[in-house]
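Appendix B, example 12.
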Amino acid sequence: MKLQIANCKLQIGARFACAWLVAAALGTSVLHAETIDRVLAVVAGQLITLTDVTAATDLGLQSADGAADPVRAVLNKLIDRELVLAEVDRYAPAEPTSEAVDREVQRVRQRFSSPEAFDSALARSGIDEAHLRETLRQDLRMRAYLDQRFSASPDQRLNAINDWMTGLRRRGGVIDLYLAGR
């Protein structure tokens, strides 16, 4: 086999192919892949990553409720959240007040032993307080939407929401890529 490196064009992708060919010919490895994050699901065009699952868990926004696979449990909740958000965006309920969002941020802060612990959780999750505020604002919008749409008694409400969620999951365009243990 004769390797002709001179024929490689310096285009995006071709440069990497040439480097791979040279490495293969020399029996060495030039390229190293680094995983930055894992996409676990795509819901209504929105990516849900392993970082999203970790952030939701670390900040106490979602819980695994003692599930055998905590990543799967929280991922399922984040998938449902995205499906509901898509519906909420279609019907645009009233925006929560900044005071309501402030209260939610304060509730999250209180889950931590110190401001440093809170800041550390944000940093570990790769988000800042503005991102957290936006997430909490969306949660408040979702609550308002669900309260408006499902105003039945608590038992009937839970059944109605579960039936509605089943329909959303069926038609929601969910691509679930999560495989346990990988």
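The helical segments are 14-26, 50-58, 70-91, 98-109, 115-125, 129-149, 154-171. The longest strand covers residues 39-43.
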